[in-house]
């Protein structure tokens, strides 16, 4: 029993100090962006201690196919520093909130060649032992353009169909109204004609020549009726 307690305390003493000093850093795992757009690369950490005023974040970048990482950003002594060399010197903005353990950066105007691995390291003194975390960035050019074209085509087709349906609907209404009108005129003469004209309601403005034709037909039929 004593041996067990001794062992347990050794194990606990071994674990606890390590835990209480370790800092665990989180980034995403992979992010996708479009050429020309911007992307937020987030970085946060977990630490057993209160958030220190001396929190630091640092970001490095390793392009795909390269073995060397370059430093691109530091947050230290309460101020952000963008490295004045390298591919992101004009395109990087600090968008984190160190008091909330957030060391996120924004990469603007993404380039096709930005593919690579971004690594974030954070320290929350005296909690400084932790493993940096990495996020892979993939910048796409072609696929989103195709997707955009497809989306546009679908929207276009849907809109076209809607317009077609509306046009057909009004055309049918117009034709049906005309047909009822002329049928009633030819079969039942004046009285019914007036009724059907009222039913016709706000029909789309008719082509003046057609109106004339209809009127002349009306007159013809009226005169025929008069002759009888
Ligand atoms: C970046 O990654 C994407 C996705 O894998 C790929 O399509 C593209 O060709 C890559 N860009 C470069 C410059 O290699």
From TrEMBL:
Residues 1-22 form the signal peptide. The chain crosses the membrane at residues 145-171. InterPro entries: Ig-like_dom (IPR007110), Ig-like_dom_sf (IPR036179), Ig-like_fold (IPR013783), Ig_sub (IPR003599), Ig_V-set (IPR013106), Myelin_P0-rel (IPR000920). Keywords: Disulfide bond, Glycoprotein, Immunoglobulin domain, Membrane, Signal, Transmembrane, Transmembrane helix. Residues 17-136 form the Ig-like domain. Residues 215-228 have a biased composition (Basic and acidic residues). It is found in: Membrane. This is Ig-like domain-containing protein. The keyword Transmembrane applies. The keyword Manganese does not apply. It holds the Pfam family V-set. It is a single-pass type I membrane protein. SUPFAM superfamilies: Immunoglobulin (SSF48726). It comes from the Eukaryota. Residues 186-228 are annotated as: Disordered. The lineage of its organism: Eukaryota, Metazoa, Chordata, Craniata, Vertebrata. GO terms for biological process: myelination.
């Amino acid at each position: 029993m004593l041996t067990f307690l001794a062992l347990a305390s050794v194990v606990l003493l071994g674990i606890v100090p390590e835990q209480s000093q370790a800092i665990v850093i989180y980034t995403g795992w992979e992010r996708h962006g479009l050429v020309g757009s911007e992307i937020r690369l987030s970085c946060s950490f977990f630490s057993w201690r209160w958030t220190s005023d001396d929190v630091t974040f640092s970001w490095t970048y390793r392009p795909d196919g390269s073995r060397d990482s370059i430093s691109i950003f530091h947050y230290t002594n309460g101020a952000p520093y963008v490295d004045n060399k390298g591919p992101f010197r004009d395109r990087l903005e600090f968008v984190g909130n160190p008091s909330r353990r957030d060391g996120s950066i924004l990469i603007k105007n993404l380039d096709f060649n930005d593919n690579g691995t971004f690594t974030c390291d954070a320290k929350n003194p005296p909690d400084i032992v932790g493993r940096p975390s990495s996020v892979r960035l993939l910048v796409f050019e072609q696929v989103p353009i195709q997707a955009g074209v497809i989306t546009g085509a679908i929207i276009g087709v849907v809109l076209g169909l809607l317009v077609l349906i509306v046009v057909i609907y009004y055309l049918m209404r117009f034709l049906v109204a005309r047909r009822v009108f002329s049928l009633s005129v030819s079969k039942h003469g004046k009285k019914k004609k007036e009724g059907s004209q009222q039913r016709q309601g706000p029909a789309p403005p008719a082509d003046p020549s057609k109106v004339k034709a209809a009127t002349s037909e009306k007159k013809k039929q009226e005169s025929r009726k008069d002759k009888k």
